[in-house]
Amino acid sequence: MPSFDPARIALPCAHFIQGQRVTDPSALSVSRPSDGAVYAELPMADANRVDDAVTSAHQAFVRGDWSRCAPRERARIMRRWADLIEADIDYLAPLESLGSTRPIDQTRAWDVPYTAEGIRFFAEFADKHGGEVAATAHDHLGMQIAEPLGVVGAIAPWNFPLSMTCWKVAPALAAGNTVVLKPSEMTPFTAVRLAELAIKAGMPPGVFNVIQGNGPVTGDALCRHPYVAKVTFTGSTVTGRTIMGACAETGPKPVTLELGGKSPQLVFADIPDIDRTAKTLAAAITGNAGQVCVAGSRLLIQHELLEPMIERLSKHFNALTPGPTWQTGGWFSPIISATQLTRIESIVARSREAGAELLGGGERFERNDGGHFYQPTLLHTNDRHNPAVEEEIFGPVLTIQTFESEEEALALAEHDVYGLAAGIHTADLGRALRTVRRLSAGTVWVNRYGRSNDYILPTGGYKRSGVGRDLGRAAFDACLQHKSVLIDL
Ligand code: NAD
């Protein structure tokens, strides 16, 4: 059942600067993963347009009607913003689904409400932090004051356009900063709508700006702009390194980087319910067709469970039916682009050439609608240097490796590059706690996988999976700087 007609959605095909839409000549084609159709031409911000946006944010910061307003007033506007986002679900959810990999059932049930609630979560910090009075000599008064940084440059990926915008933007705004956001050029539209709703909620013009464009031109100009005080980025590890370089050359400026992953799932033979674990493992690699930074993409399983687990995973994988994101009914997501689809195929082919055994999937879904759909795929190998084990695929491809002992499982779990997340499945509490402490991962889930709808636990990477943390108090604190004041009494 189509939930909406993809041809009938008004697209905010523009930047959003100083409280209004701004356009440039079209420069980028935007296509829909569900059918491959080009459905919009996007303006691209060059260095001058980036300068307009950053200058607008800088002037708003200096003006002070956001950065120096009563923090409770900031919080009130942000809560109103969240209410407006929820009330706009009939437009925002289709707009999010249209050109992304997020099926309409999910954008309605999860992406839109989760984004609104995330904004409320950070709004609550606005007036719940203070400074400190320091113990100094009796004839001095020492104080420490927390202040916003200035203009925060935010750069988001395409895999969860709304919620990633929330993670990047909401803590920065709650702390009193102003923001220039560059969404992914593949999913550019819902960010503009969010910025418009912020104005409607009472946020002053120039506080939250959106610029459209690609990474090397628009993103790079944003990172290098002298008025940008900090860059917060979510995307691949390679891009994160480039961004850190640009921020070092033009700063140094602080960065928060949420990067790639290759997360292991350790399954021990003592699990009480293999069906339940199989369901969790399947969901962890097929949700959003594996295009999730924390996708549980490496299954490490105690060898006696190998055959029964393959049987169960295959059943889950075979039950998934692809479908366009505008149809209701719980369809399996498309791959974001033709380029990414070809990349997945190439990694699977290289992995098989290197000796991995294909146990299921391994091909595109044959369709006549032009959609980019790849079958959930199982590869068995015990070579830790196999390409499918080493590289972040960002698709529905699960590798299976076996182990005999806890020590061996821990050794296999360690990845040379990534340390974003991990899962442990065992009935033995002692083993769970031992292994939690030895895994190099920013998040470890025990007998479950994936976030619940909480915002309080910080998320981020060990190793090259990131610098700093999103969510939680940590994300808010990272948007502040501290001033020490010493007064002669
Ligand atoms: P990407 O790195 O290709 O692009 C992310 C963003 O960076 C886009 O907006 C892009 O235009 C911009 N960009 C690209 N080059 C740039 C440059 N030189 N300067 C400034 N900006 C630049 O990533 P993607 O393909 O959009 O997203 C997938 C990646 O994101 C995966 O690696 C995934 O693991 C990661 N991710 C991580 C998290 C996390 O929380 N750790 C969450 C979601 C996605």
From TrEMBL:
Keywords: Oxidoreductase. Residues 27-485 form the Aldehyde dehydrogenase domain. Gene3D superfamilies: Aldehyde Dehydrogenase, Chain A, domain 1, Aldehyde Dehydrogenase, Chain A, domain 2. It holds the Pfam family Aldedh. One of its GO terms (molecular function) is aldehyde dehydrogenase [NAD(P)+] activity. It comes from the Bacteria. The active site is at residue 258. Transmembrane segments: none annotated. Belongs to the aldehyde dehydrogenase family. This is Aldehyde dehydrogenase family protein.
